[in-house]
Amino acid sequence: MKIKTETILTVSKYLALLGAVGASILWGGQLVTLIASFINPDWAKRTYEVDLNLFSIREHSIGFYVYAMCLKITISVVKAWIWFVVFDLLSKLTIQTPFSMKVEKKLERIAYLLLGVWIVSNIFWKIYTYYLLDATGIRLATINSGDEYLFLAGIIYIISQIFKRGIEIQEENDLTV
């Protein structure tokens, strides 16, 4: 049983690394698209992960276009950061002592980063689309509802608090022995 758990954690660790690399490629592609759109807009329309709706905004207002791209890049950067923290968490996690302050702090950091993704993807994007519609008449679809990030942030924060309590109980047991 122990070998199976260690194998699952090792595979999960490398899957998290793969997710981090994939998310990094995504935000890197978005950043290249943003920069390329100022150098050669026609070429930028054919790059990786391009959103042609945002290019129509560029024709109306460079400021709105840059702000939208910055929001998308920010969301992608934070997602990559989450994957790297998950990889780091799985690297530091040991079967012998799963309840450690390092693990608890990583879980808490993941929860706060997920909350940050929700804030940017839900609140800031809605504010942006409101001002975009008001100024240019262009209606953009939302990136996503973002509610899943809020839900995951809450669950992971609760798990981090359970880990914190587990650490307290473990320390009490160490003192009584």
What does this entry look like structurally?
It is a single chain. By secondary structure, the chain is an all-alpha fold. The protein has one domain. Helix content is 84%, strand content 0%. It is built from six helices and no strands. The protein has helices spanning 2-39, 41-44, 52-60, 62-92, 101-136, 147-176. The longest helix is centred in the first third of the chain and has 38 residues, at 2-39. It is elongated and about 70 Å long.
Q: What's the tally of helices?
A: 6
> Strand pairing plus helix content: what structural class?
mainly alpha
Shape: elongated
In whole angstroms, how far apart are the ends? 28 Å
Oligomer: single chain
Whole-number count of domains: 1
Task: Give the C-alpha Rg.
Answer: 21 Å
On the 0-100 scale, what is the average pLDDT?
85
- Record field, number of beta strands: 0
Strand content: under 5%
Main β-sheet description: none
Instruction: Report helical residue fraction.
Output: over 70%
Low-confidence parts: none
In N-to-C order, the SSE pattern is HHHHHH
